[in-house]
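Re: folding output
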Amino acid sequence: MSADPELLRTAFTHPSFGYEHDGSRGNERLEFLGDAVIDLVVAHLLFDAHPDWTEGELTRARRALVNNKNLAGYARDMALGRFVRLGRGERRAGGADRERLLGNLFEAVVGALYLDGGLEAATAFLRETCGADLSAEGELPEHDPKTRFQEWSVATRKVFPDYAVISDSEVENDEERFVVEVSIAGERFGRAAGRTKREAERRAAMEALERAAAS
């Protein structure tokens, strides 16, 4: 990630830190800008990736990809929470791992990248971060392997599946950096590797679905 250091400093400053130290609003304005940029860029990338999808399918996919929960997942994959500056109260409350805070942080980072490098920089970052979800083998997000395996697990076992990171090579851009296992009540159903935790989880879910279909 490369951008103006001062912009990134602001992006990683939670409002609680600003209130306690200099009275600023922290990354709120960058969050606002990043939210709009993400909507535009993701819409464009989906439009290019899925020429056969209808307007309704593109809209549903965009909504699924840009919701706060999903953006927080991307922020966790990049360990962005490790670098955010928080006020004392927010830090004591575990703010660095709170879903809403991480989603907002991701938006602020995109806002900073856009101000520094324009749409080209923001697009490159989002393509790198969520490219696998944008293509997703032509599937709508609500039909992805994790969602389908969760539906199967709840319907047949009455519990949600558990995903666990088994190993992390800590090598950036390693295509098999993360190894993830998915299990149900302690029974392993799938194991796979990926460049990000999300990618590894998705592949593990695909393997789990194959096992479920054969059972």
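--- second protein (sequence, then structure) ---
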Amino acid sequence: MGNLYLIATPIGNLGDITLRALETLKKVDLVLCEDTRKTGFLLNHYQISKPLLSYFEHNELKRIPEVLTMLEKGKEIALVSDAGTPLISDPGFKLVRETLQAGANVIPIPGPSSVLAALISSGFPTDKFLFLGYLPRTSGKKEKVIREVPKETSVIFFESPFRIINSLEMIYKVYGDIEIFIGRELTKVYEEKSRGTALSLIEKFKKSKPRGEFVAIFNISKELPENQGQ
């Protein structure tokens, strides 16, 4: 039985890849990836040549039996996402579950993560945190998720440039003008980190059109100031 390697790749700066990740990519028989062009660019940068097979949300169920068959034949297979740690807001958990049930070994190769990069640079407590992935698109579901987050916990979520203002406005509606951290394009050339009140960040992004990928963090105290959280 072969092994399935879950390999974290850079979230922006190619220099962030680990030596172990490179060693593993060099020895596997096949690399499963969301976008073969993006992963191909990464491998070419490090002069690694490997067969690539697309693995994303819409072909996941089709791919799983194929991958299990290859593992049964002793193939060594890597799974990567376009950026960061596989399975974090990306497909893969179903494959991991089926691989374990089939008796194959799943080996994590840890490395870059935008979730942790944002958390440790946010100024919010790091001892207890909750990652929500992307917030729901509909207002009702989004408000429900935001209202139900635990207190005194650093809450982390991803957001697109098209919905970041709406999400900040929803946080303001629920909790008032609380402090929020926003990380944009972390580790990339145009990395930007902002921490301010909900209203100040809303104003900032209304003045300057949001671009890139966002990680947002907030933390609700047990007792909100008067007039907040209404």
